Amino acid sequence: MTSAENLQAFRRDGRIVVVGASLAGLRAAETLREEGFTGSLTMIGDELGEPYDRPPLSKQVLTGWVPAGNTKLPRRREIDAEWLLGVPADGLDLAANHVHLADGREVPFDRVLISTGVRARPWFVESEAALDGVFVVRTREHAEGLQRALAAGPSRVLVIGAGFTGSEIASICRERDIPVTVAELAPAPLVGALGAMIGEVAADLQRAHGVDLRCGVKVTQLEGDAQGRLRRAHFEDGTTIDADVAVVALGGIRNTDWLRSSGLAAGVWGIACDTGCRALDLNGLVTDDIFVAGDVARCPNPIYEYRLISLEHWANAVEQAGVAAHNMVSAQADRWPHLTIPLFWSIQFGVNIKSVGVPTFADEVVVTQGSVPDHRFVAAYGYRGRVTAAVSFNNAKWLDHYRRLIETAAPFPPPCPAPDQPADMKPVPVDFPGPALLAQGATVVVTGHDPSERRVTAAHQHR
Prior knowledge:
It contains ten helices and 31 strands. The longest helix is centred in the last third of the chain and has 15 residues, at 314-328. The strands form eight sheets. Strands 3-2-1-7-21-20 form a six-stranded mixed sheet, covered by helices on one side. A six-stranded antiparallel sheet has the order 24-25-28-27-26-29. A five-stranded parallel sheet has the order 9-16-10-11-12, with helices on one face. By secondary structure, the protein is an alpha/beta fold. The radius of gyration is 23 Å and the shape is globular. Residues 435-449 have low confidence and may be disordered. This is NAD(P)/FAD-dependent oxidoreductase. Residues 15-321 form the FAD/NAD(P)-binding domain.
């Protein structure tokens, strides 16, 4: 048979397994059917329910606006799949083309998509993590439990970690007039994602809303009473606070443990893949039949010097799933690259925060529009003289403009035609915690608009 005949046979009778019944997994399955795949489709997930939306869990669900059970993802179409839920995958055999399940079953495949996502990082002492009143927020069950605890009116909530999730939870506590202490090891909230300047703004915002914000501190112990209920937290400096609810918001762990013996390039940062979402093996070779999408994918981005980037972003999961699914059932010449510019959003303390691009890939930042004291501004990020990202506080209407600047490798600081441009647009060091892992490389711009046409072309550095 010719390669075209083999592809047609696969599209008609092939076996595709999706490991990870997630947002990315569901959108990929829908795309497979839309692309004309009529073979067998199996969805494997460790949770009992079908895929649901996670961003509302730390937003609308905790406020009580949306019941956790109402977060099920809408179906764009029927996918005619076999659902194997409630049992996680615990191995991948690339030689025999089988997915091993924790209950001993083996699921054969011709091609597999891995979209296992991340899980919440638990508190480091298991007995303390098990105390009544200690929570993480990742699943519907987590959100339901924390929502009930907040509705009961705790005397104080301790949030450990001031990233986006921790900051959103602190915001919800203040909306409910619940006293809240936020403990953050870094110098300010959001500093690991957005840098020191934005971190100072976030810190002022929290304190202005009555948050007891403690930065540069470490929680060392969660203390319970004789009934196993949380009562107190101990800090490294010897101080304590009384609290009956603690939320551990220390980020996520990518679900790659089950691939340890698979031969794939999988680790704590995710599963390495090419821009076509094909997984790499331990030798760095591209696999033919293993694809990756969503939070667990570690994908190179040409705009960011081909660095392998893992993104816990809703839009990235959807778009990457579409590219992966298309490529699974397409000939080599018809495959698409995943070249999406990341987009992220958060609502906290009455402020809508949105970002485009990768702020951590920057050495300078400048406020280009609006007023920082009014918490209504846009800040642009640059690396070696070109725009790489932008963040807006209550000023998101301009982000499409900054997306175009990123895609065209526009010079930094960017010329800004806005009427609210600050009088003194002075860039400052972006100042992320930890070492800066930036390297010199080619400057590229994204060309084309249709996913099948998106390509990159080299551009000269701005001097």
